[in-house]
Amino acid sequence: MAHPASAWDQHPEPLALDSAPVPAYGSGSLADLLPTLAAGMAVPGTTATISELTPADRNCVFLIDGLGWEQLRAHPDEAPFMTSLLGSSRGGTGRPLTTGFPATTATSLASVGTGLPPGAHGLPGYTVRNPATGELMNQLRWQPWTAPGTWQPYPTVFQLADRAGVHAAQVSAPTFENTPLTKIALSGGTFHGRTTGEERMDIAAAQLAAGDRSLVYTYYAEVDGAGHRFGVDSDTWRGRLMYVDRLVQRLAEQLPPRTALYVTADHGMIDVPFDEQHRIDFDEDWELRAGVALLGGEGRARHVYAVPGAENDVLTCWREVLGEQFWVASRDEAIAAGWFGPSHQVERRVYDRLGDVVAAARDDVLIIASEREPKESAMVGNHGSMTPAEQLVPLLEVRS
Description:
Elements: H1 33-39, E1 58-64, H2 69-73, H3 80-84, H4 89-92, E2 97-98, H5 105-114, H6 118-121, E3 127-129, E4 136-138, H7 148-151, H8 157-163, E5 167-172, H9 180-185, E6 190-193, H10 197-209, E7 214-220, H11 222-230, H12 235-252, E8 259-264, E9 270-271, E10 279-281, H13 286-289, E11 292-298, E12 301-306, H14 311-322, E13 326-330, H15 331-336, H16 348-351, E14 357-361, E15 366-368, H17 374-377, E16 381-382, H18 388-391, E17 392-393, E18 396-399
Parallel strand pairs: 1-7, 1-8, 5-6, 5-7, 10-15
Antiparallel strand pairs: 2-17, 3-4, 8-18, 9-16, 11-12, 12-14, 13-14
Helix pairs in contact: 10-12, 11-12
């Protein structure tokens, strides 16, 4: 199979690793949001690191799955209310946050809830190798089963807030109440499961009013689902955006006094064409498969686990084949570059979960695996890497 990046004998110059736009850990990433809000409510063990945010007695985070900064700005007609708030983003600077790497739901939700970068909380991808078993673990679906408290041992910011006497609550779909991801990333205080978006907004407002100091989280998933299935410029996706825009306005209009509402997302998304130039199939490519024991991550953010002794050969091969379209790093290079957070925060228990080789897409391309990952390989909209379309997310603000 011919590769769009190069043929073997061309030896292209690979993308320089320092050209990758590393997330703004410690000053403007998703992991910094809840600690900043909690510190403003005097919760012990938390530190304010997003300097632009002003403390409030009651704080609400509304996370819209899959709504990146670039997608929101590109659709003002579908989201008039959120568009009117763009200037409020990140404390009135009009700037976005970054997610973290990879820009994917499990990683981002863990960063939001724990206030830690991926190298510390330990959910550094969609699927990663479990060093204890040698198997790939899907960290979104939590398959195969792994003890949640062992995999992610840190308390959530909601738990810290609850212990400090802050009224903490999560308002989401009932199906998420007892999932391992919820338990390790978003638990603390009370969970309120509601089916419709309107019910969630109303309950979130009520929970904010239930304490003199409150920290409330609510969530909407369907923008992401529509993007994966139909693409981020489809009529279905636009319809979901229109609906969630009305939800944001509904919540904003019933905030109790002394409240700050923050609307953000876990990642953005891009559509990738269905052809061999844009979708490189690992399962049909002997060059990319050579020396690889496990393929983890997702199409735009791959963790590649080599057969013992083949690590350097796999790195060389992936760089030669993909290096003009992907940032391709060894595990140690990715850590040193700060992809998973400051290098000193990448813990030993997380180190071996990371790929021997980590590949992050710069261009509109995917490394699919049509046999191993048939559902994921068929998605229209994708995310995971460090491009602005995936990394940048809003932090819209409404105060009462």
